[in-house]
Amino acid sequence: MPPQTIQEALTGHVPTFVLDVNAPIQPKPMGTWMRVYSDDVWYWEGFNLTNLRNAYGHIFDLPNPTLSNPIRSLRLSPTCAVSDAHPRFVIRNLDELKKHGIETLHHLLKFPLQHAIPKLKERLVCCKSDLLCDYRAPHTQADWLWSVFYATDKTNLVVSCSRLSNTFTSEDLRLKKLNAMYTLRQLATYAVIGKTRYGFILTDKEVVIVRFHVVSREVEEYGVGWVAIPWKETGPCTLTVPLALFSLALMSLNDDHRHIVVGDQTLPLDAWVREKHSAREGKVRFYHHLSGQYMDELPEGVHFYWERKEKRACCVDADDARSNFHRDFRGHGRMEVIRAE
Asked: Are residues 251 and 304 located together in one domain of the fold?
């Protein structure tokens, strides 16, 4: 039997989180949280398995370096019951959710991420060599900043906050209820301090993937794209919680597309750049702005591409082209969008 791929490993069964709380405890809003308004909150439709596979399929298809069933080796506790190979955590408070949720994610993602980084380095100017996970950010001097994926050089990659499902759900976010706006403001504060646009809201029922952008250069207000993924979603052709967070960490490993920038400089997930591979032969190829993946043709279903407005005066080798691309591509002020024929 061939070894499991990373995608297969991250789309299998995950632990179940069972809430056992009598009454909801609403988080207390803080006046120092960053400003996020309902008009600037939208569903991140582009964060889907098709776009992620187009960008990171060469990594998703790598052999998974972990055990065939990593869930079996999770450390169990008195609040965990086991049914077959699937742990079932009973959650009685927010701290237990943070502990078991983040521990589960780190356990599932640690080795796939270590295996993925060298492959990512083949196409990106990326100096990260390993990823860690903890309940607090390592270098922000903020002891209330919970659960973050970060690199060994202390670069924060993905931040998060946590909510019990009796106080927050993605339906609240869809309806733009006040408690959902407070949650986004809290996470936006963590993202600004952590210097990353990527985050997630952890609950016992689902995980909400979030990407932030600055609404305008004149005011410090933040816009949000989000998509919710239930923990119960599994299957090889399904975007699961572990696979989504694995993808989010890969996206944040690109140093040029991690910081929070103005909305029109935050490219869509399916943004591909056309560049000439050989000036003499006139050949072109397409380069994914986040993963560095090259293709001779646009992936099926991608109808637009980006192209530089300014042409280079001389030819450069592949490594120099990659470096110049990243220097030019902070935002896309020098790029134009073209509809594919």
From this structure: no
